[in-house]
Amino acid sequence: MKYWGLIAANLRRNKLRTLLTGGAITLAVVLVCVLLTMPAGLDALLNAVANNTRISVHNKAGIVYSMPYSFVRKVRQVDGVAGALAMTWFGGAFEEAGRVTFPSFAIDAEHIAAVYPDYPIAAEQLADFQRYRDGAIVGRQVMKKYGWKIGQRVTLRSTVWPLSLDFRIVGEIAAERAPYFWLNREYLDQALKAKRGRGLGIAGIIWVRARDPNRVNAIMRAIDELSRNSDAETACETEKSFFANFFGSLQGFVTIILIVTALVALCIVFIAANTASMAVRERAAEIAVLKAIGFGRQVIFRTLLVEAVALSAAAGVAGVVTAAGLTGALRAFAGWSDALGPLGSFIVTTPVILQGLLLSLSVGVLAGMVPALGAARKPVVAALHDIF
Amino acid sequence: MAAAENPRSDAPLIVTRRVSRRYRRGVDEVHALEDVSLSLLGGHFVAFMGPSGSGKSTLLNLISGIDRPDEGEVCVAGQRLNDLSEDELAQWRARHVGLIFQFFNLIPVLSARDNVALPLLLTRLSKAERLLRAETALRVVGLESRADHWPRALSGGEQQRVAIARAIVTDPDLIVADEPTGDLDARNAEAILALLRQLKSEFGKTVVMVTHDPRALRYVDAAYHLDKGVLLEGEDAERAAAAIHAAAGGTAARGTAAAGSR
Amino acid sequence: MLPLSYSLHNLLARPGRSAMTVTVIALVVVACSLFLGLISSLKRTLMSSGDAINLVVMRKGSDNDGSSQISLEAFHAIRFFDGIARDAHDRPLASPELVVQPFFRTRGGGRENVLVRGVEPVALAVHPCVHIVEGRMFTPSTHEVVVGHGVVGRYAGADLGNQIEFGRGKWTVVGVFTAGGSSFESEAWVDVRELANDAKRLYPYSGIRLRAATPADLAPLQRRIDNDPRYALDAQLETDYYAKQSESANTLYILVVGIAVLAGIGAGFGAANTMYAAVQARTAEIGTLRALGFPRAAILSAFEIEAVALSVIGFLIGGACAFGLSRLIESSLGGIAFGASTFTINVVTLRLGSADLEGALALALIIGICGGLGPAWRAARLRPLEALHKA
């Protein structure tokens, strides 16, 4: 608009103040965005598994309790099941890390395609996984973290059984949120037989894919019915429910994050409001003259408000851009996922960007509103009285 | 800008009928103006004079539409100002009045040219048009070479001239000046008064000025005297005029005491 | 030097402006205290769980309590080793334990993995920090359970007299224990034999906790267990064991520091803004002071004192609010649960400790001192003539 020259000139009036205020808003927006990526990471994970057809089957008593492996075959025969596989916790510690830093599972290789068709694993890699007993398929996040390549050999020491196994990485799960290490069930089974005389007779969790999403509930009931009154009664739930429950305990932490975010947002409103009121107060004389020569209340209000909003919006954009860069650096540091799980993925999603921008706009409006209104509303005579 | 024209001496441009204005200061009620009626013809350069607290600035505010009377009515260029709301008054001022103050006239972060062009932002003119008019106005006051300067780079007298340029840029019916020479030295004050006179004589503008500068009497067509909110007439007015002459050291005045309606 | 009252009066002269800056600092103090308090509470919980005179014995190669398996023979072999403390009846203070993590249904309808520790009565002697404060210890073989302080009220049926459903059955709560704020308070204790049965474990125990007779006995005991050729066992100090568990909490400290730095700089900018305006408004007054002969250092310190006073007030208000907020969180949310990547839940009560408040005070002071430095410098550098002229 044509008042832009006036608005820009006013922002340039006290460059230090404009920079300090803009800087404070930018920093706050960076902080808010980084903090918001944490619950956003959790939401993204839950959304990713929201609408699919996978079901988890686990012992009713708890995930740490297991089921007999033979149960998997029974599950495969339930009407409507497209595929089912057993996943058992290996608890492998990579020696460099010294302890368990990513989840590792013994898995039924032949059934991966049937149960996880949506996971981006190259077909040849899946074939290799079945061909090579000591093969391993590893999620991209883990590969990047340790700098592993396809074809590399790694050794994992199990923290569940007293053995270490050598693996050859034959494939990658090329997705952002699949930090898994999959090994062949048969490989573990044989190693255990050699060590203690008994193979791996158990299944930790059974994952099932339903052919038709509408039949998911019926399938879950059928599977639970199968196991009723046995030694290992099962409880089925959708994949979404499984992850929601698994990470449900993070809710308290997320609440604290949101509280802190709100406090920071309130902070910048105060800083911006202070600046806006100082600016308007100092310009009382000019504003009085402008009103005298005919600038109406609306125009005065609008130009003052736009001044505040322009500054905060620009600072907001700078903040969002910086946050995107900063989270990139945060992602590179691997320790987060250990401590925070999905909260530590630090990916700046579109909703986070929008929230950051919205915050900065609101700050400008809230902060500028009161001084702008006050200046606009004051009758010309009173304003002139104050200065002359 | 209107070329040199004869003053339209038939139609009174400004008429006030029995206006009063009071306001509260703490617990007291101050009678700024009491029952003032006057009628000013267009194309004249007049002064409102009087001691501080006499109500001259209040009267100026009323006829320029900055303030409203508590009683009585104000008509300027045929428009009854009492009928207009605050926002409408602002619009009216933008179109019909040019204002000059004693200080704080200019916006420090805008160049002289942009300051002069300020009132034109309220019109529908294009940017090029606005700048052209601003430069024209600056030429009238003799400051076209300083168009790009910041106010702080201009002397007090030059700042007032820029303020005058801004006051005429919209080609208003009425130009109003509140103590325009109050902050200036003798040489600059004379220059400003001469310029204001020029606006009347060359361009036919109506100029109303509040001042207690005795030098003003040499430039104005008429001077109205106020004291304690009342417009002085007859002998009282003459006495006030004489007092000013004496204070000024007896310099011959062009305008003599005016009284009431003409 | 200018008197203190000069600085303080100036703060009061512009109450609105001072209040804004104080509010900004207070908000930052609250935000950082909360986060800092949360992480320290977590650390404190984990660290306090270790008794310096205890040893944790697990199968070699196990990371934690839950994944280890120890046979009956192994237990009987080591419990009579030299160096293990004895009770009044000359029984060794060796506590065989089984750790399992079944689902517990929360009051809110969710579910969490809770650490259930199967123990024998000797456990209370080996873990003297554990005190039964309500009810009594469970009687073996009666499907009874005693729960830690953090468990009460969080899960369905988790109070005295009620029954909790977990594993394959229902267990009656007969007692509540505290454990000095340690992670034991997030656990439920039952009879080890019953638990092994319920979980269908082949091996009855997952770990053994030993209490050494004297600190000097720790090292030889540890060596003997580590080197025993019959059973592949590993012994470590209980304090070391829990220290390892709290490693992930350390990464979170970095997050806190990051938040504090960013928020602090932002608040510092805000404070600087206000003070710059103050300097501008008081230019004439400063000029007078300088003309009268006050040195630059006096002006500088006067302004810095104002800034510091604002931060201290901000800290006091922020600290008080943070306390109130942490109490509010405790009453509405209960404890904050931690434990995404590890399997077990540690229920942490958000408590602001003195270290947390010291950190917050330091932050507030840095904001004030650094934020006020620029303006104070500018004020000090005003030349008397200039300043009076501008006015």
Characterise this structure.
The complex is a heterotrimer of chains A (388), B (262) and C (391). Chain A has 388 residues and is an alpha+beta fold. Chain A folds into 2 domains: 4-46 and 250-387, no CATH class; 61-232, no CATH class. In chain A, the strands form 2 sheets. Chain A has a 10-stranded mixed β-sheet. A two-stranded antiparallel sheet of chain A has the order 2-10. Chain A has 15 helices and 12 strands. In chain A, helix 2 crosses helix 12 (297-332), helix 2 (15-48) packs antiparallel against helix 14 (350-377) and helix 10 packs parallel to helix 14 (350-377). By secondary structure, chain B is α/β, with parallel strands linked by helices. Chain B has a domain at 12-103 and 174-247: 3-Layer(aba) Sandwich (Rossmann fold), CATH 3.40.50. Chain B contains 7 helices and 10 strands. Chain B is globular, with a radius of gyration of 18 Å. Residues 1-7 of chain B have low confidence and may be disordered. With 391 residues, chain C is of the alpha+beta class. Chain C folds into 2 domains: 4-47 and 247-390, no CATH class; 61-231, no CATH class. The longest helix of chain C has 38 residues, at 296-333. Chain C is elongated. At the A-C interface, helix 2, helix 10 and helix 13 of A face helix 2, strand 4, helix 8, helix 10 and strand 13 of C.
